[in-house]
UniProtKB/TrEMBL annotation:
SUPFAM superfamilies: N-terminal domain of the delta subunit of the F1F0-ATP synthase. Keywords: ATP synthesis, Cell membrane, CF(1), Hydrogen ion transport, Ion transport, Membrane, Transport. The keyword Ion transport applies. InterPro entries: ATP_synth_OSCP/delta_N_sf (IPR026015), ATPase_OSCP/d_CS (IPR020781), ATPase_OSCP/dsu (IPR000711). The gene is atpH. NCBIfam families: ATP_synt_delta (TIGR01145), PRK05758.2-4 (NF004403). Its main location: membrane. It is found in: Cell membrane; Membrane. Signal peptide: none annotated. This is ATP synthase subunit delta. PANTHER family: ATP SYNTHASE DELTA CHAIN. It is a peripheral membrane protein.
Length: 183
């Protein structure tokens, strides 16, 4: 079974537990924090996968480090350690966050622009494009990319909305080439 399927199952189980205990928002916050810790510290996964560390040592490290976390989140992490699945913790957190976003009508999106966008510009982009992808709002991450020349390129999941100058130039070029090939 692939790690993705396993991560989804753990995320779903934790999500259902969070619903029962009315702790979804708290667990989401904890998993966002945990995901950042794992993504910013690649050595942590290597450390947790080290064969000389016993499961009890790994559990102790996590419970000491994550003292303010809910019992539900900690128990899930301990279960992952018992089953030698430490490497799927960030992916499990991602799946949980996606489930929360679906419930809240939120989608994560990336906006590429020539200059950093202001909060007002991000808000306008969110208001404009959220309905187009069937969501109420978008969590925008702005990436400055001078190669787009102007305008913006927005990526929401698998969908790309390209209103950049470089994108328009590429479309014009393809159109001209296909017109010339027909002759």
């Amino acid at each position: 079974m692939s790690d993705t399927i396993i991560a989804k199952r753990y995320a779903t189980a934790l999500f259902q537990l969070g619903q029962e205990k009315l702790k979804l928002d708290q667990i989401e916050t904890e998993l966002r924090t945990l995901r950042e810790i794992f993504l910013s510290n690649e050595e942590l996964v290597k450390f947790l996968k080290h064969p000389r560390l016993s499961a009890s040592q790994k559990k102790q490290l996590l419970s000491d480090t994550l003292k303010g976390f809910s019992k539900e989140t900690l128990n899930t992490l301990m279960l992952l350690i018992d089953r030698h699945r430490e490497e799927i913790i960030p992916e499990m957190a991602d799946h949980f966050i996606l489930k929360m976003n679906d419930v809240k009508g939120i989608a994560d999106a990336t906006v590429y622009s020539v200059n950093p966008l202001s909060e007002v510009e991000k808000q306008r982009i969110s208001e404009t494009f959220a309905p187009k992808v069937g969501k109420q709002t978008l969590n925008l991450t702005n990436i400055v990319e001078p190669s787009i020349l102007g305008g913006i390129r927005l990526r929401v999941g698998n969908r790309i909305f390209d209103g950049s100058v470089s994108g328009k130039l590429n479309r014009i070029e393809r159109q001209l080439v296909s017109t010339n090939n027909r002759r």
